[in-house]
Amino acid sequence: MSLLNEFKAFAVKGNVVDMAVGIIIGAAFGKIVSSFVGDVIMPPIGLLIGGMDFSDLAITLKAAEGDVPAVVLAYGKFIQTVLDFVIVAFAIFMGVKAINKLKREEAAAPEAPPAPTKDQELLTEIRDLLKSQRDK
């Protein structure tokens, strides 16, 4: 099999396509969460701590000199990123938890017992006939 045919067989498998869709949706979901954290969650928190914007929190280690930019430890951006991660992780946890609950409910539903086979039906009839003859 040629290298091109092997790649074609690999690329059109369902798992690869599903993974690609998941990555694209994950990237879009990441943008939504970043917006949610930055535009909805962080402003009230910043207001509670005195109108401070977390992304502005930083420590200047070395001031700018001429064309050399300042060396800054931007820990506010790190705090923002950690909050983004926690919210994404929690959302994924809740989604997986809901899916697992649905699977458990589906598995917990009792199955109807299987119908007796022809052999079992015949043996039951023979038993009943023998029993009725003995009772006479």
From TrEMBL:
<dbReference type="InterPro" id="IPR019823">
    <property type="entry name" value="Mechanosensitive_channel_CS"/>
</dbReference>
<dbReference type="Pfam" id="PF01741">
    <property type="entry name" value="MscL"/>
</dbReference>
<dbReference type="InterPro" id="IPR037673">
    <property type="entry name" value="MSC/AndL"/>
</dbReference>
<keyword id="KW-0407">Ion channel</keyword>
<keyword id="KW-0406">Ion transport</keyword>
<keyword id="KW-0997">Cell inner membrane</keyword>
<keyword id="KW-1133">Transmembrane helix</keyword>
<keyword id="KW-0812">Transmembrane</keyword>
<comment type="similarity">
    <text>Belongs to the MscL family.</text>
</comment>
<keyword id="KW-0813">Transport</keyword>
<keyword id="KW-0472">Membrane</keyword>
<keyword id="KW-1003">Cell membrane</keyword>
<feature type="transmembrane region" description="Helical">
    <location>
        <begin position="78"/>
        <end position="96"/>
    </location>
</feature>
<dbReference type="InterPro" id="IPR001185">
    <property type="entry name" value="MS_channel"/>
</dbReference>
<dbReference type="InterPro" id="IPR036019">
    <property type="entry name" value="MscL_channel"/>
</dbReference>
<comment type="subunit">
    <text>Homopentamer.</text>
</comment>
<protein>
    <recommendedName>
        <fullName>Large-conductance mechanosensitive channel</fullName>
    </recommendedName>
</protein>
<comment type="function">
    <text>Channel that opens in response to stretch forces in the membrane lipid bilayer. May participate in the regulation of osmotic pressure changes within the cell.</text>
</comment>
